[in-house]
Amino acid sequence: MKRIFLMLFIAGLLSTTLYSCRETETTGDKIENAADDVGDAVEDAVD
User: Fold this and answer.
1) Whole-angstrom Cα distance, residue 13 to residue 7?
2) Dmax of the chain from CA atoms?
3) What are the boundaries of the signal sequence (predicted)?
4) CA-based angle 43:46:47, to the nearest 5?
5) Distance between CA atoms of 4 and 28, rounded to whole angstroms?
6) Is the model's pTM score more than 0.85?
7) What's the rounded Cα separation, in Å, for the pair 40 and 20?
8) Cys-Cys crosslink for 25: which of 16, 29, 39, 45, Cβ 3.0 to 4.6 Å?
9) If you write DSSP's letter for every residue of 13-28 in order, what string do you get?
């Protein structure tokens, strides 16, 4: 019985740790990436 609770605790701990370490992209990052993509597209069109 203790082993089941221990395994559930470890699984919950790992899932919260892995989820919280994911990199999230902010709105500013999305805007910057879009501007870079547009700039790259314009440079490609000029070439």
Assistant:
1) 10
2) 69
3) 1-20
4) 90
5) 44
6) no
7) 33
8) 29
9) HHHHHHHHTS----HH
